[in-house]
Amino acid sequence: MRLADKGIVVTGASGIAAAGARAAAREGGRVFVISLDRAECEDLAADIDAVGFAVADLRDERSAEEAFAAARSGLGSVDGLLAVAGGSGRRSGDGPLAEMSLDALEETMHMNGNPAFLAAREAVRAMREGNGGSVVLVSSVLATSPSPKHFSTHGYAAAKGAINAMTTSLAAYYARDRIRVNTIAPGLVRTPMAERAAGDTAIVEYAYRKQPLAGGLLDPDDIAAAAVFFLSDESAVITGQLLAVDGGWTVTEA
To answer: What are the backbone dihedrals phi and psi of residue 244, each rounded to the nearest 5 degrees, phi first?
Structure first.
């Protein structure tokens, strides 16, 4: 029970977020879920017997503040954050740089950067009033190990790269408050966001070559296991790290 009695906030309610929330609950964590989708929130909260949930748009400052106020009220203390909320900007026009509009970039950054920033900010504010804690952000291998043929979404890579940079600076500044900040960079994971990729034979075959340790697409539970490690006291002296959980993506030729 590595998270016994720890108050854990999870942003997002499907895919990696859902797996992370379930793993945290299994390890004894008191979990509070924040997501934009009410049905997913209700289902996940019921499944893990969560302390509570809030339906919120974490791209919006007021909405994020209200959601975390509810989390703090329900949990009593925020000891850990797993910030997963984000998504693909393809529908907004994310793609190769020369083919993108500024609006497409801004929407993709807004969708991924704002939820990470606001969730981290609200969690840090709560943790500074307590005994510190652990912030776990979620990035992507595409920020540092691109795939030009299959994943040419430059706005998404830029947004995840911003999360990587934020991790380093936040970890340095808040170490004095005993607040740890680390980021997980998953490879290609079987989640609702990866539905397009999972249905593309060429990409699935690419994943088998690129992620040999996973034998194709990763399972969300693979990422959740790393999240529990960062949220637990096992990583009490680890901060400012970017951990690729990618089945070998970053070190394997396709």
So the answer is: -85, 120
d(CA 241, CA 134): 12
The predicted pLDDT at position 86 comes to 95
Dist CA 191 CA 111 (whole Å):
17
Task: Please name the residues in contact with 60: beta carbons below 8 A apart, sequence gap of 6 or more.
Answer: 114
Q: pLDDT tens across 94-104, in order?
A: 999 999 999 99
Query: How many other β-carbons are positioned within 10 Å of the β-carbon of residue 201?
Result: 7
pTM of the model: 0.96
Would you tell me the crossing angle of helices 220-231 and 15-26 to the nearest 10 degrees? 50
Q: Domain extents for the chain?
A: 7-191+220-239
Three-class secondary structure of residue 233 per DSSP: helix
Cα–Cα separations (whole angstroms), residue 218 to 37, 133, 222, 231: 24, 28, 7, 21
Q: How far apart are CA 127 and CA 142, in angstroms?
A: 30
Residue 98: the pLDDT is 98
208 classed as catalytic: no
CA-only gyration radius of the chain, Å: 17
Residue-level pLDDT at 198: 81
Q: Predicted confidence band at 194 (pLDDT cuts at 50, 70, 90)? A: confident
pLDDT at res. 153: 96
Top-level class of domain 7-191+220-239: alpha beta
What whole-number distance in Å separates Cα of residue 48 and Cα of residue 26? 8
Cβ 185 vs Cβ 245: under 8 Å: yes
* Residue 105 to residue 38: CA distance in whole angstroms: 27
